[in-house]
Design a protein that fits this description.
Elements lengths: L2 H4 L4 H12 L4 H19 L10 H6 L1 H6 L4 H13 L1 H8 L16 H26 L7 E6 L2 E5 L2 E5 L10 E4 L4 E5 L5 E4 L4 E7 L2 E14 L8 E4 L4 E4 L3 E6 L4 E7 L2 E5 L2 E5 L4 E3 L9 H4 L6 H12 L24 E8 L5 H14 L1 H7 L3 H14 L3 E12 L2 E11 L4 H8 L4 E5 L2 E5 L2 H10 L9 H11 L4 E6 L11 E11 L2 E10 L28 E6 L3 H14 L8 H8 L3 H5 L3 E9 L9 E7 L2 H21 L7 E7 L2 E7 L8 E7 L2 E5 L2 H13 L7 H5 L11 E5 L2 H14 L8 H8 L4 E8 L2 E7 L5 H8 L2 H6 L5 H4 L10
Parallel strand pairs: 8-9
Antiparallel strand pairs: 1-5, 2-3, 2-4, 4-7, 5-6, 6-8, 7-8, 8-11, 9-10, 10-13, 11-12, 12-15, 13-14, 16-17, 16-21, 17-18, 18-20, 19-20, 21-22, 22-23, 23-33, 24-25, 24-31, 25-26, 26-30, 27-28, 28-29, 29-30, 31-32, 32-33
Length: 829
């Protein structure tokens, strides 16, 4: 048999095998085939999709679902974001082989290696503990379900499942309470969140901040104190930032509502920030009305404890709510003509105890009145004790008066309407030592029998209605009175201002806010320094001040020339003791202060801190100017005179001046000899004003503020502090919002200023906690009025009584806090 007959392979098959063996295959085809094989191997080894994502293994388990298009959108987004960040997972997803390390033969570790490993473990453990304490205080960082009343669900892409007490809470997962259910959750930082029924929340951690996202429903949060970071509660239209605070947040279709029980809360809404304090509330929609905080938290299981906190808050003097304003007084017209002191307290049973405290406090805040009151106060306290038990006999108003008898002030005497019989008998029984006189419909009583008799003798004479003192009081009451006191200064032992005759002050509640005012009345037109202040007038200089300004002082004077004249007259009187007369000084300067300088000005001024206070204070000055050319010429003459004097005195550092025109506007500069931004003044003239600042950039900012119409007069913080009265303009106004500027510095000051050096920790902390405030002055032909939110009966009123107008204005800023304590304290405790 031939060899061909013994060959088992068919020639055609052998030829095909040879062609396949010799064929050159494209490398791309080989790589694609290998990738498909690798993908099948990976898919075969892949676990089922993880329900909770805690690491790379859980992300890798979701990859097959992502390739098949079955992964929910939310998880698909999370996975894609992770693939962008994690190289290892991205290689697995792309089907690439990850090289594994070559196994090394086992060997016995040396003692050095063992000690190094032990040290690394201790260091890692310590670092973990430090991070936990730094972010979560002394808490373990475990978020758990604390209590459940009903059903609490965990909502995931795969469905919902109920959670039980003690179960861990994963981040990023939606939690929902069922109907008729509520729950308490403890977060990782130790904060406790109480959920109302049908409420949806989730939490997320970013660095040292923890955020609660409230989808819908209501929560009450007891925020833990944190060393770093904040706790945030975010709704669809606002964000709340807190630390160590108790508050509630509700989110619904209409909007969100935030109520504060304890601490301070910062609410951000529509690019605006608002600070809420205990008992205050904010809503994000005009269609959502505010409700009492007590009602807003009434659903809570801890409502009794929370309500007690609110009740304790309301006991504070600052939270006293007065009765409705009174616009008339039936008792005023019946007072005797000899009345020289008048005080009105609204009659309200639960307010009577607080009224005594308020009355004593306000009298003590006014030194001129407290001296007169000091010998009479103890007797008044005994009478008020009886009034608390007898208030059901009284009408809506209780009046306290003093009268002038033979040039001696007698009083105080209480006068009130009676609404039921039996009060004289009640008072004789409860306080036999108290004198009492009755007239039709009213009763007068007090500890001083002579004063009571003198008041009773002049009641219903109608003579008081024809006196200027009556007119002062009646005008104040007609504008709405809460707590009101007034005095005829001509009968006081010391009259601080020539021509000053009456002092009236009061506090009232408008729109839930306390407002105070104090008026100094004159027997005729204002004279002397009191006459400098102009009537309320428009203030165009405020148009150059931005909403970021932290201090603003603006005022209008009647006539700069008249002020200069008065100052020159005072200097002329003491010319005998001066080396040079005013005329000689003006001759040396080369200009007339009265005509060239004061005559160029319009009388309106504003000075503000409008930017950063360091390293160069961002001050800004705006002065109304009627003749810019004459004023600029006068300023140049003043600089030349100073330089001549410096050179003649041997000083080789004269002032520098320059001017430059940019875009058609001329900018001027006056500076010291050395290049120091602290000694530079830049200014220009615009729209009838001189605008000055330490840099041209600040001037440009001022001009842009004026052009855009976004000045501080349109800022919510400024507008909300504006006193509510019938005046459309101001004679003078001072506004401060120093808290936000000083707060970052208080910690640094507290760390570097030792005790016993004039400023203690309480004073430093007070600087950072300063609240925004505003005080306004209104000048009228025969009076000056001070008005502000809160009280004006302390330092501003005392300054006003002494004739110190600037003191009355600056009383709105607690400058005393900058001085700290004058009491020496030990360096160590």
């Amino acid at each position: 048999m031939t060899p061909a007959e013994f060959n088992p392979i068919d020639p055609a098959l052998e030829r095909a095998v040879s062609e396949i063996r010799d064929e050159a295959i494209d490398p791309a085809v080989i790589e694609a085939a290998a990738a498909r094989v690798w993908t099948r191997l990976v898919q075969a080894a892949e676990p089922k999709p993880a329900e909770h994502i805690r690491g790379c293994a859980d992300f890798q388990s979701l990859m097959p679902e992502l390739r098949a298009g079955r992964l929910p959108a939310a998880r698909a987004t999370l996975l894609r974001d992770h693939l962008h960040e994690c190289v290892a997972c991205r290689k697995v997803y792309e089907g690439k082989v990850v090289a594994l390390p070559v196994a090394q033969p086992a060997r016995r570790a040396s003692y050095t290696v063992r000690w190094a490993a032990a040290a690394a473990i201790v260091a890692a453990t310590g670092l973990s503990i430090w991070i936990a304490v730094d972010q979560f205080g002394t808490h373990t960082g475990r978020a758990i379900v604390q209590t459940v009343n009903g059903t609490l669900y965990e909502v995931t892409a795969s469905g919902i499942r109920p959670l039980t007490v003690g179960q861990d809470l994963p981040d990023g997962v939606e939690l929902r309470t069922a109907k008729d259910s509520d729950a308490m959750l403890q977060l990782r930082d130790g904060s406790v969140v109480e959920l109302r029924e049908r409420s949806d929340v989730s939490t997320s951690q970013t660095a040292s901040d923890l955020t609660i996202r409230l989808v819908r429903g209501s929560v009450i949060v007891q925020a833990a104190k944190r060393r770093t970071g904040h706790l945030y509660v975010a709704t669809a239209d606002c964000r709340v930032a807190v630390t160590g605070t108790v508050f509630s947040v509700s989110s619904g279709v209409k909007g969100s509502r935030v109520s504060v029980v304890q601490g301070e809360v910062h609410v951000s809404h529509d690019n605006q920030d608002r600070v809420l304090h205990p008992g205050e509330q904010a809503v994000t929609s005009a269609s959502l009305e505010q409700i009492p905080v007590k009602d807003d938290i009434s659903w809570s299981r801890n409502r009794d404890r929370l309500t007690q906190q609110l009740d304790a808050l309301r006991s504070s003097l600052q939270q006293i709510h007065l009765p409705a304003l009174r616009y008339s007084s039936r008792l005023l017209s019946r007072l005797p003509a000899s009345t020289v002191f008048f005080a009105s307290i609204p009659n309200l049973g639960q307010y009577m105890t607080q009224a005594e405290t308020v009355f004593r406090q306000k009298m003590a805040e006014s030194p001129e009145l407290s001296q007169w009151w000091s010998n009479r106060g103890p007797h008044v306290g005994n009478v008020l004790d009886k009034l608390r038990a007898a208030n059901e006999y009284f009408g809506d108003e209780i009046v306290i008066v003093a009268v002038d008898v033979a040039s001696e002030t007698k009083g105080p005497v209480f006068i009130t309407e009676v609404k039921r019989d039996g009060f004289p008998e009640f008072l004789h029984k409860e306080a036999p030592e108290v004198a009492i006189q009755t007239r039709p419909g009213i009763v007068a009583f007090g500890a001083d029998r002579a004063a009571v008799d003198a008041v009773a003798a002049g009641l219903d004479s109608s003579a008081f209605q024809g006196t200027p003192f009556y007119a002062q009081i009646a005008q104040s009451i007609s504008q709405g009175a809460g707590f009101l006191l007034s005095a005829d200064l001509s009968h006081m032992s010391h009259n601080p201002i020539d021509g000053a005759r009456y002092f009236t002050a009061g506090e009232r509640e408008i729109g839930g806010q306390m407002e105070g005012n104090a008026t100094l009345g004159f027997a005729g037109p204002r004279t002397g320094i009191a006459a400098w202040l102009a009537d309320p007038s428009p203030m165009g200089s405020l148009d150059f001040v931005s909403p970021e300004a932290t201090v603003v002082a603006a005022f209008v004077v009647k006539s700069p020339v008249a002020i200069v004249n008065q100052i020159l007259e005072l200097q002329q009187r003491s010319a005998a003791d001066a080396e040079k007369t005013v005329a000689e000084i003006q001759q040396d300067a080369g200009f007339d202060v009265r005509n060239d300088l004061a005559g160029s000005l319009g009388g309106e001024f504003s000075l503000s801190l409008d930017g950063q206070p360091f390293p160069v204070p961002s001050w800004k000055l705006a002065i109304e100017v009627y003749d810019p050319d004459r004023l600029q010429s006068t300023l140049q003459k003043a600089v030349d005179a100073i330089n001549r004097s410096s050179v003649s005195g041997g000083v080789k550092a004269p002032l520098r001046t320059s001017q430059e025109t940019v875009d058609g506007r001329t900018y001027y500069m006056i500076a010291g000899a050395d290049a120091n931004p602290l000694t530079e003044v830049h200014y220009t003239f615009a729209d009838g004003y001189l605008i000055a600042a330490p840099s041209r950039a600040l001037i440009t900012k001022a001009l842009a503020t004026k052009l855009s119409g976004t000045s501080i007069t349109h800022a919510d913080q400024f507008v909300n502090l504006t006193p509510r009265d019938h005046y459309a303009h101001y004679s003078a106004v001072l506004y401060q919002n120093l808290g936000k500027t000083l707060a970052p510095l208080t910690g640094l000051l507290g760390a570097f200023i030792p005790q016993g050096h004039g400023m203690d920790s309480n004073a430093i902390e007070g600087l950072g906690n300063m609240k925004p405030s505003m005080i306004a002055l209104y000048g009228e032909p025969d009076r000056i009025t001070v008005a502000a939110h809160g009280s004006v009966l302390g330092s501003p009123a005392a300054s006003l009584l002494r004739g110190n107008l600037m003191g009355a204005v600056t009383g709105a800023v607690p400058f005393a806090q900058f001085q700290g304590t004058h009491v020496r304290q030990p360096a160590f405790k």
